[in-house]
Specification:
Chain lengths: ~150, ~150
Amino acid sequence: MAKPPRPKATVESSVNELTTAMGQLLRRVRLETSSDELNLSQLSVLARLDMHGAMTTADLARSESMKPQSMGAILVGLEQEGLVEREPHPSDGRQILFAMTAKGTEVRRKRGIAKREWLLAAVAKLEPAELRTLIDAIPLIKRLSES
Amino acid sequence: MAKPPRPKATVESSVNELTTAMGQLLRRVRLETSSDELNLSQLSVLARLDMHGAMTTADLARSESMKPQSMGAILVGLEQEGLVEREPHPSDGRQILFAMTAKGTEVRRKRGIAKREWLLAAVAKLEPAELRTLIDAIPLIKRLSES
DNA sequence: TATTGTTATACTCTATAACTATA
DNA sequence: TATAGTTATAGAGTATAACAATA
């Protein structure tokens, strides 16, 4: 089934395919793991706190390209599960630092999270060179969202 | 600003970063283009109809990893904008084929769509080799969502 | 007056469930 | 009985607006 002679793939058409492909993969991941205890944003926040240490709502919101109110809702969820906890800011009474708890560290690191399982299995089907390409693209995607 | 010596990036941690990065980029794209007339899913459907010709709701839903009811809502939106139209299926009275209209083709192809503009500007900041990596990764992301 | 965070509300996107019509 | 599509409803995720407290 040879493809019809498409005019050479332009950057423009690639950009369209990128958003389509990303949207589809995220839908798929959410569907495959809808019974999971944490959603993708919550996992992102845990990963970030694990790397950077305690952060404020505003900083977390900025780093995830999200509004502070939205981040607040995510943090409330994580807090109710006992995965993060509040710490007063040492010098600014307005700010609140959110830090991972021991349970948060454990949940984040344990292999049992279904979200990873499904995607890991899919990634395992890639050729080594393809896997390298995919991994190399991750920081680029990250940079795009920050530019 | 050398990076701290992170323990070698495992496939597992890369998979986490991939979903985080994709979620963040899609949020950013949506924010930057929230005044746009079409959402990402609608643009995907137009692109697919442009490539494949007329398709049914069910086939479109399958190809986008989405439920038929959800695809139905997307198609109603496109239909009300006059971008797609219904055609009866030649042999099966239950099925309905959706085809692009001339206006749909025009809207899809015109350069003015803000969604593309913002992302194109961001992509233009990548080095040529990085752009190649990103483009090479697109079919891989697509394949993951279909596996 | 500007910033941090909270509360209340609404919107977008997609899923689930129940139904109709055709096969 | 199975499949395609529709209608109605609900849920997740995130935004906007209005507010309180601190700087």
